[in-house]
TrEMBL record:
Name recorded for this polypeptide: Sigma-70 family RNA polymerase sigma factor
PANTHER family in the record: ECF RNA POLYMERASE SIGMA FACTOR SIGK, RNA POLYMERASE ECF-TYPE SIGMA FACTO
Classification via InterPro entries: RNA_pol_sigma-70-like, RNA_pol_sigma-70_dom, RNA_pol_sigma70_r2, RNA_pol_sigma70_r4_t2, RNA_pol_sigma_r2, RNA_pol_sigma_r3/r4-like, WH-like_DNA-bd_sf
Entry similarity comment: Belongs to the sigma-70 factor family. ECF subfamily.
Ranges for domain RNA polymerase sigma factor 70 region 4 type: 135-188
Keywords for this protein: Sigma factor, Transcription, Transcription regulation
Signal sequence segment: none
Keyword Transcription applies: yes
Length: 196
């Protein structure tokens, strides 16, 4: 308990209620409410982002992105689905995870490029032969599918149709097309397992 007689849970509950009210006002474009909301949520947002991202400079950047997104998307907040603080922290967590994934992806991409630069010179003939063999293997595996599975997989993966478009083109229920696709892709995966 503090000197003013409030417990830590009372203060947290008070912050939650305050954030809920402020976020509703921010959704109407109230800048003063945003300043107050910023003061309430910036600490928890930065703390969460820092735990996920770890790098202090990147954490600050992500926290600022989250708070900017909060200003832009406050109207999407639905008080019936939870507290404003929970909603804001969900935005922060998603943005932080996206940043970590992006950084990891960039690192992996750089490593792949470095490996290629240090690898043997590119052999066009060997590459064409290998690609031809892979195409032939895929053709053989496609031939092992039923005609209906092959037709669905071909429309979706070679012609670029969505499952819904495949269903319309074949005049079949969407569920039937999904089942054919799943079964066909499972059979293809099993058949192509020897390629890797």
């Amino acid at each position: 308990m503090r000197k003013d007689g409030t417990s830590r849970s009372d203060r947290r509950r008070g912050k939650r209620v305050e954030a809920d009210e402020l976020l509703v006002l921010v959704a109407t474009g109230d800048q003063k409410a945003f300043e107050e909301l910023y003061a309430v949520v910036s600490g928890p947002v930065f703390g969460l982002v820092r735990r996920v991202v770890r790098d202090p400079a990147q954490s600050e950047e992500v926290a600022q992105e989250v708070l900017l997104e909060l200003w832009r998307s406050a109207a999407r907040y639905d008080p019936g689905r939870g507290s404003a603080l929970a909603w804001v922290l969900t935005l922060a967590h998603r943005r932080a995870v996206d940043r970590v994934r992006s950084a990891r992806s960039a690192t992996e991409r750089e490593l792949r490029m470095a490996r290629r630069a240090n690898g043997p010179a590119f052999d066009h003939v060997a590459e064409e032969v290998e690609a031809g063999l892979e195409r032939e293997w895929v053709r053989r595996c496609l031939d092992r599918l039923t005609a209906l599975q092959r037709q669905s997989v071909t429309l979706a993966y070679y012609d670029g149709y969505t499952y819904r478009e495949v269903a319309e083109r074949l005049s079949l229920p969407l569920g039937t097309v999904k089942t054919r696709m799943r079964d066909g892709l499972t059979r293809l995966r099993d058949c192509l397992g020897g390629v890797a």
